[in-house]
């Protein structure tokens, strides 16, 4: 028996999120079914980020255990023959049997993309949130500074969260503008339920001028979900990648 | 009666191209129907570039005549209320009654996008052609130089073309690489049927090393479609925009 790590990219548009649900097609469900077909074993993957419905990924991580004779680094090729075109495994490798993608210290990076112009662009409609309201990127950048570091992010956590603690560390949070496209990029030790989308929704309010950049500090201190802005729509969010800091010998 | 010019962006994935066909939904057809609904007149648009099935646009041009009382610059807003989300009008303005988008000297720009990596990325699958075969961008750039200028592009013209002459001018043709994405960008006075896709298909052969960069000169001189490479798939192609050089008083 060996444990295999997959790097998984997907267009989340047509999925009911990562995690298997009573109804609806999920990324995890499709991976389980496809790996079961491929290996002839009853495979269940463990995902690093259980992304919401409509959220995309370039580098989410899944691990599973198998006795297959397919060489670990060839599993990606075999799997992609069977997967639908909106889920593509980018890499596969063997990892230690005790490696668990949610119990290992890691750095996760997400991007929230905003298309800011008079009219939407059809080709960007699935992976960018569109707004015609002019956004002040400098103000968004100022506000973002308050969130960097270790903080209690309770104000940025969905009330439906079951997390034991709401303290997290944001290592990096940047807001960049290239032509009409504004990208919020955040790297952290982990994120609370809906946290990146609530951060994006609050930065959007600051960008439009509804709120001032230094209100971000008060919102953080309030430790109250109602203090922050709305949860920005899922389709603007992409899980970029995860770096594991320990407990993994192979490339990650 | 006045003539209105529209700048039209679309995701061509779900359309049978621009031009109205006996069967299938087309961009032109949807614009005609939507404008007819909006103006209560029997509207027929004239398009600048009759893009093929699966080809996208950021800035294709359509003109139509109307007696509507909607101010010209507000037509875009009104139209976008009715159009499907994969067709978005970016601008509308009044132009002289004698302005015809295919009979006016212009510079058209197209981009052909190639994703060049081990595995495809799901979010790019509709607007980038994917190949895992390593492409040598420098060789593609060398080959591209032979095509710049006024030439008989018969080798790069579909045998189904009805063009009277196959001489065209390419003003600019660049091949750029950013990470895994290679973009072929071409600006010309106009293009023959499938010309940009045949140029892309030939540059792909040069990028893989199947053919050498200086073969491009021989291909051009052959004036024979069979001398050039295959027609690259439609979904990698996007009509970027058109600049009109004369016969138009308004912004273009």
Distance separating the two termini of chain A: 20 Å
Task: Enumerate how many helices of chain A there are, as a single number.
Answer: 5
Radius of gyration of chain A, in angstroms, nearest whole number: 19 Å
Largest sheet entry of chain A: 10 strands, mixed
Blueprint (SSEs and pairs):
The structure is a homodimer of 252-residue chains.
Chain A: E1 2-10, H1 27-39, E2 46-47, E3 56-66, H2 75-82, E4 87-95, E5 106-116, E6 129-131, H3 137-145, E7 149-152, E8 167-178, E9 181-188, H4 195-208, H5 215-222, E10 237-244
Parallel strand pairs in A: 3-10, 5-6
Antiparallel strand pairs in A: 1-3, 1-4, 2-3, 5-9, 5-10, 7-8, 8-9
Helix pairs in contact in A: 3-4
Describe this structure in words.
2 copies of one chain form a homodimer. Chain A has helices spanning 27-39, 75-82, 137-145, 195-208, 215-222, and strands at 2-10, 46-47, 56-66, 87-95, 106-116, 129-131, 149-152, 167-178, 181-188, 237-244. Chain A is α+β, with helices and mostly antiparallel strands and 252 residues long. In chain A, helix 3 (137-145) crosses helix 4. The two termini of chain A are 20 Å apart. The mean pLDDT of chain A is 95.
Provide tags for this entry.
homodimer, 252 residues, alpha+beta, ten-stranded mixed β-sheet, 10 strands, 31% strand
């Amino acid at each position: 028996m060996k444990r295999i790590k997959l790097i998984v990219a997907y267009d989340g548009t047509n999925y009911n999120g990562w995690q298997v649900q009573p109804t609806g097609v999920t990324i995890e469900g499709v991976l389980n079914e496809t790996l079961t077909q491929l290996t002839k074993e009853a495979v269940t993957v463990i995902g690093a980020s259980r992304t919401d419905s409509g959220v995309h990924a370039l580098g989410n991580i899944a691990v599973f255990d198998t006795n297959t004779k397919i060489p670990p680094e060839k599993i990606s090729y075999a799997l992609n023959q069977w997967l639908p075109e909106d889920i593509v495994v980018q890499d596969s490798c063997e990892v230690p049997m005790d490696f668990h993608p949610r119990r290992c210290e890691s750095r996760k990076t997400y991007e929230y993309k905003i298309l800011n112009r008079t009219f939407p662009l059809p080709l960007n409609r699935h992976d960018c949130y569109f707004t015609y309201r002019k956004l002040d990127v400098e103000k968004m950048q100022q506000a973002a500074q308050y969130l960097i570091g270790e903080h209690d992010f309770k104000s940025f956590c969905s009330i439906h969260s079951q997390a034991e603690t709401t303290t997290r560390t944001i290592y990096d949070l940047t807001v960049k503008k290239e032509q009409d496209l504004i990208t919020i990029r955040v790297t952290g030790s982990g994120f609370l339920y809906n946290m990146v989308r609530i951060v994006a929704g609050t930065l959007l309010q600051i960008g439009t001028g509804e709120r001032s950049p230094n209100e971000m500090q008060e919102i953080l201190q309030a430790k109250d979900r109602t203090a922050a802005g709305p949860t920005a729509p899922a389709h603007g969010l992409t899980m970029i990648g995860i770096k594991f800091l320990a407990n993994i010998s192979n490339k990650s």
